[in-house]
Structures are given as C-alpha cells and as structure tokens.
Amino acid sequence: MELIQSNRCFNGEQRIYKINSKSLTGESKFGIYLPKKALNGEACPAVFFLAGLTCTEETFAIKAHAQQLAAQLNLILITPDTSPRGENVEQGDHWDIGQGAGFYINAMQAPWSEHFQMETFVADELYSLVNQEFLIEQNRIGIFGHSMGGHGALTLALKYPEKFKSVSAFAAICAPSQCPWGEKAFSNYLGENKTEWLKHDATALVEEKGALFTDILIDQGLKDQFYSQLNPALFEQSCKRAGQKLTLREHEGYDHGYYFIQSFIEDHLKFHHAQLHA
Amino acid sequence: MELIQSNRCFNGEQRIYKINSKSLTGESKFGIYLPKKALNGEACPAVFFLAGLTCTEETFAIKAHAQQLAAQLNLILITPDTSPRGENVEQGDHWDIGQGAGFYINAMQAPWSEHFQMETFVADELYSLVNQEFLIEQNRIGIFGHSMGGHGALTLALKYPEKFKSVSAFAAICAPSQCPWGEKAFSNYLGENKTEWLKHDATALVEEKGALFTDILIDQGLKDQFYSQLNPALFEQSCKRAGQKLTLREHEGYDHGYYFIQSFIEDHLKFHHAQLHA
User: Fold this and answer.
1) What is the ipTM for the molecules in this complex?
2) Does the active-site annotation cover A146?
3) Which reaction equations make up its catalytic activity (chains A, B) (predicted)?
C-alpha cells in the first residue's frame, strides 16, 4: 500500500493510496478520508462510497462535500475506483462499459473476466485491507453510492449484510436487468443468461433476501437526466413485497450530478451514523 | 447572456452563463450560485470569488463546498473565469501565463493586450452585468479569492472600495512584484517598468490606500507547496504600516489546494456576511 496523495482537510486527512490488487490483477487506487480521531489512533466507524460511471477514486472527495460532517461524526470514508485501470485493461467502446464502468460485479467471460472483478475487490480485498491497515470499529461499516455505485452499494449490502451494516444510495440503478446501462454491462460481463443477472440486481435481490436492514435510504432527483435508467419504483415495490423498509425521497428540480449529491450528503452521513450506532 | 448550465443545489441554482465580453474581445463564461431567496425575486448580497492559476469559472462551485452555507446566508456567489479563452487568445508557454492565468489586471502590451483585460472585465463589465441581470443588494457586494485570485481580490478591493465592501483571501499572492509567478505575469502583461507593477501589488497598494476595510481575512496553510510565491508576511507588515486591520490565520498542515479551502470556506462566507451587514 503506497500513499500517493495526502491533504489536510477539516483537521483530518484526505488521502489516496495505490495498491497492487490481486483480484483486479493490477494496480488500483482508493481514496480515504480519515477524521482527526482516526489520525490519533482511535477506532472510527467507516462508510464505503461507490461512485458512478466515469468517476475515479477521487471524484467523491472533490465533489460530494462530505468531509465536513464526516469530521464532526468521526466517520472514515472509503472510495474505491470504479473499475480496474491501465494499458492492459479493456477500455470499452463507450463510457458505460469497461474502464470507469466496472459495475461492482465479477465478470464471467472474456475479454472482461481477467481484470473486472470489482465485487471481490470491494467486498473482500479492499474491505480486508482497510480493516487491517486502519483502526475501524468492528460491526460499524456501511456502504453507499451513486448511480452505478448506488447499484453497487445496494447489491453488495444485500449480498454481504454481515459486512455492511447500513446502506443508502443517490439515484441508484435499482434494476439493472431492466435498463440499457445494466443490460449492456451485464451481457458483456456476465453473458446472456438472465438468471445470472438477477443475482446482481437489487430489485431481484431484496425479494430473495428479505428484510435485512432497519431502513434503506435512497434520494432521487426528479429532473434526473438518466431517470429512465434508474427505476426506483421497481425497487420500492420489491422492498414492499420483501418487508424491507425503504425511505425513498424524490426531490423536485434536482438532477443526476454532484450538485444534487452535495445537497443531501449530510442526510446520508447522519443516516449511516445513526444506523451504525443503533 | 446565455444560460448554458443550471443545477439545483441546496434549493438554489448553480448556473453557468456565456457572454460576449467587450473588454475581453470574445466569449467568456461565469458561474453564479443563486440561493432560493434570489430565485424568488428577492435581493441578496453577493460575493465574487476569483480563482487561481489553471482554474475555470466552475472550479469553485465544484471544489470549494460553499453552496450549503451560501444557501443558509442567502449569499449570491459569482465566479468569473481566470482569463480570456479561445483559439484567438494567446495560450502562453506554461500554466502560469496566458489562458487560465489572467492575473486580474489589464495587459498593456502585445501579444496580451487585445484580450487580457481581466481587471476591467471583473470590476466593470461583469460587475455591471450581474447587477443589471440579478437582484443584488446595493452596497452589499464583497470579493474573495485563492492564490492568483487572492491577489485579484485584494487588489480589486483596494482599487475599487466603492464597489467591494468586504475582502478576504486564501493563500493569496500577496506581493506579486516580489515572487516568480508575479514577476513573470507582470513583465509579460505590463512590461518592465516596475512602477507600473506596484499599482497591482496588494502589499504596495495597501500602503498607498490606507485603512479602507474594517478587517481583511487571509487564511494560509503552513504546508503550502507554493508558500514562497505568496509572502503573507510582507502584506501583514504593509497593513500594519497602513493601519489596515488584517486577520492572518496560519494553519498547521494545510496545503495550497481546495481541501484547504473547503476546510475554512464557511469562515470566509460568515466573514463577508458580517462585514456586508455591519
């Protein structure tokens, strides 16, 4: 683990590390915000944030405006990159596939399967690494994300509830099996067997898993330019059928971007803080 | 004035406009944050933010994390670009000169003088335009900035105290006549006559103008990688000689970037709010 950037921020440190990832078969970077309490060697709760298409490990740190409240709440924020990267990694034909578009799943077929193992990377390799390298409070780790990363957060939380105790999302791709972004990614990474797809589809998963969380928070802008990709209503119906409480908030006038995220980021951090201390 | 981007943000709007600038002889863009009160047609105070080298009209909006408190304080935030832009505009041999490096002065010699008229652009043309197009409270306009834009804010406030009622800066180039960035910019834009330079040097200007403001706030990181370009101590001495109150705060561990700015942005907005309502 090599520290490649560190900036003092609200008396804590916003950092970027480079690692050699076994699961991604190559280098990867991740960001981490360490509040002052963590720098002082005291254990803190942590929340993973999974970013959306085209983003990197630093997008959230620059654009989401989370550090101020994270500093107050003593929350560690962990931000993986959105895919494997590098010259040897498939670029993809568009920004919705390949580099910057890993979809937080493990690819099952060529040319993707060699590097695109983002589920194992986030939920296993990076999860273990940060728990080993930083003082993180046991049983106080949450996960949230945006768009493709909202899909990632919901599905990883539903798959690994023993690892992630709280989950929320902004403008999540809630039913990837039923939207163009998800169909393209899943057919490339997983193949054409749609039974396989449903294992990585939050709307299908929540019905299978049942009520795992006290609450799930999703914020959605009603002027979101990608609204047709997101399907929050399908997820809401599945949660209802599964008995999973969902707080789905729809916001007049807000779009898909980080100006929307920054407007509601504090509610998400407070939500995780409350869930992790319940 | 053409609206080219608008994003809902904390119940207000973060916008970018494109204009044909007379003073820059070409197109220019500026950002503006309008809190909800302004959208509702009520007059609000406004603060100009001048960004540093390489930045654009959107850097502050993305990275400074100012909108949340601006929404609470009903402050309009106005962010010009850092230079003229375009194919017909001199690019410069490095990022410290030419496009992205206008230094908020009027160039006096070729090849710069045709477009690089940033002082007139900000203090006259854009100032008039925003006062005409938006409901801004009379006598409640402040200015602040970062690095090159800190130099811009200090000098424009000292030159036009009737226009700017409050002034602050992050990591300002406080004595451009005495640092490499300033020497390069001033010799290019103004020529070799150093008497001319002093008209655009905050450390010289404050001595000439005397005490114009109740207080000036400057935040400076002590791990700033460009510390030798900034000379806050020279400005402090000049303020002392001029009887101008200066609150210069030096912060252990903070560097030159926006993670530093976001850590103290609220203090600056509160400072302007207080000064503009005194």
Assistant:
1) 0.94
2) no
3) S-formylglutathione + H2O = formate + glutathione + H(+)
